[in-house]
Amino acid sequence: MTMDPNVLHNISYGMYVVSSFKDDAFNAQIVNTVFQITNEPITIAISINKKNLTHEYIAASKIFTVSVLEQDTPITVIGKFGFKTGRSFDKFKDTKFRKLDSGCPVVLDNAVCFLEAKVINSFDCGTHTLFLGEMAHSEILKQGKVMTYEYYHQVKHGGTPENAPTYIKKER
Amino acid sequence: MTMDPNVLHNISYGMYVVSSFKDDAFNAQIVNTVFQITNEPITIAISINKKNLTHEYIAASKIFTVSVLEQDTPITVIGKFGFKTGRSFDKFKDTKFRKLDSGCPVVLDNAVCFLEAKVINSFDCGTHTLFLGEMAHSEILKQGKVMTYEYYHQVKHGGTPENAPTYIKKER
């Protein structure tokens, strides 16, 4: 049986900041696995590691937002949201964001658009949970190309944190 | 509440042919929603419309393959797999493919690589099912850029069939 993990590098993704909240606390993290699943109603699935603080907040509030990052998002922004934990660092301190009517924050820095989704189901996938959300709000913020996962790796030379769905051991 | 469906055009996807089988019958269809969910084990999720023949075959055999399409895949190939039904048309008749040990076919035409997955769970998402498969086999076939959903729409001027997760009404 052949098993070439390089195949996984040929799957296409975008780069997103997923935000959620629990009571008065906000958190956000970088996610590349954001996908539309159905169109009637419009549902969006995201894969989140169970160890992440954002997982705890989405499970509690049943609401998340997705900010679609622009192509020239600074690597420092990916670093802030993707490689630090909200347990010991306030990711919203120097971040431009909006608090939606639901109470959920949405990150506006470097976002070309965003959507808000209300969780209607969650699927246990071992180390990760697939949250299925129905889109409740969506806005275009500006025109511009979005950052793809390929662009982040090939042009920005970015890495993948260990808790990501697409983390592959040889990146260690 | 604001709801701008154009936000959905800013989510990034690839372009794939997903194949499966039932007894001696093969079928395949175009899918853009293919994504890695976990890395230990390596699992892959795909969203398939319940009306599709490929859905019936995956539900029966619990096996599917994903062929990652190259950037310059002819629009006629997308048309064959994405806009015709295997109920009245043999999509494998003039297609280069391989039958894997499991019995599952994998399309080789215009594929830079492929993977095979064994279904370990399936999640009901209304009109679509999210099949979660554990990767069992994967091969690189050639080097080259992959086709993204954005490239297919913007450069190839391709459309989206009504059964796709990302079909949006205004495309009618």
| Major sheet of chain A | 7 strands, antiparallel
Work out the strand percent of chain A: 35-45%
Described by the principal axes of the CA atoms, the overall outline of chain A is globular
Rg calculated over all Cα atoms of chain A:
15 Å
Number of DSSP helices of chain A?
Answer: 3
From the N-terminal CA to the C-terminal CA of chain A, the straight-line distance is: 25 Å
Mean pLDDT value of chain A: 92
Biggest chain pair contact, residues each?
A-B, 56 and 56 residues
Order of helices and strands of chain A: EEEEHEHEEEEH
**In which order are the strands of the major sheet of chain A placed?**
2-1-5-8-9-4-3
- The computed structural class of chain A is mainly beta
Please supply descriptive tags for the structure shown above.
homodimer; 172 residues; mainly beta; 7-stranded antiparallel sheet; two-stranded antiparallel sheet; 3 helices; 13% helix; globular
Structure, explained:
- The structure is a homodimer of 172-residue chains.
- Chain A is mainly β and 172 residues long.
- Chain A is built from three helices and nine strands.
- The first copy, chain A, has helices at residues 53-61, 75-82, 149-154, and strands spanning 16-22, 25-31, 34-39, 42-49, 63-69, 97-99, 105-107, 111-125, 128-140.
- A seven-stranded antiparallel sheet of chain A has the order 2-1-5-8-9-4-3. In chain A, strands 6-7 form a two-stranded antiparallel ribbon.
- The longest helix of chain A is centred in the first third of the chain and has 9 residues, at 53-61.
- Chains A and B meet through strand 3, strand 4, strand 8 and strand 9 of A and strand 3, strand 4, strand 8 and strand 9 of B.
